[in-house]
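Shipment paperwork, digital attachment
Item: protein structure file
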Amino acid sequence: MINLPLIFGALGPIFALILIGFSLRRIGFPGDGFWPAAERLTYFILFPALLIQRLALSRIGDYAVLPVAAVIIALLLTMTGLVYLLRSWLNVDGRAFTSVYQGAIRFNTYVGLAVALAVFNTEGGAVAALVMAIMIPLINVLCVLVLNLHAGGKATVGGVMRGLIGNPLILACLAGIGLNLSEIGLPWGSAAVLEILARAALPLGLLAVGAGLRIEGLARPGLLAAASGLKLLVLPMLAGILCWLFNPGRLETAVLITFAALPGASTAYILARQLGGDATLMAAIVTVETALALLTLPLALIWVV
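Attachment content:
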């Protein structure tokens, strides 16, 4: 039997924090300078601490890592092909196309890990960290390539690689997996320190997600609907088909489909602004997807639980 109270009870606080962050930013509290600093603290310190803690102490050997990787690679490449097939129908310029593309494949890591922990408990959090370790580098490479091709971005292969190597989330995933496989774990009392930092990661991260939402750029409903439909409806269904083909396991399947159903992230807006994409459209896509996820994410969880 589907546990609806579990699903809505888990998602309610997550979206409440996002709405609180959005409201606080709109009324100017505690000040515009607070939110960029809070996002940087979460991105560089708190969230990596959470990932290291989860991965270092989990039983990675219990999970189907190779099938999970196969599903993720097939999912991202298939969606990339689908978005390109739809490009002529969308009738957009290169800059807007890159925003639709990012809106179709990027996901919000803060929301994803919060949902995985709330619905699938500690083991779900470990699988979510593994999914992120594979997804984040691939998505960043694909998005930078598309922006270079269609928006006149100036990123080079070396620059992309340096960006990936210096990405704190990727480094945290690698560190956590390395500590786990070496059987070092978290020595010298580091587990307690990381636990304290990890507790602050998701609340502050979700508040920052809400604060980063923007309401400008909502004048192109066709593109907003296309990007949101691809991300919130097509991608989860495609993930379900690929999980059926590769059979990564029940928990892994549930987490993969959940991540496929997540809304876009504010990092897409930052990347669009840096590499010449349509940043205004990108901000609108992220905002609309986050709002629609209030409805679509529970449906995805009902499907997988």
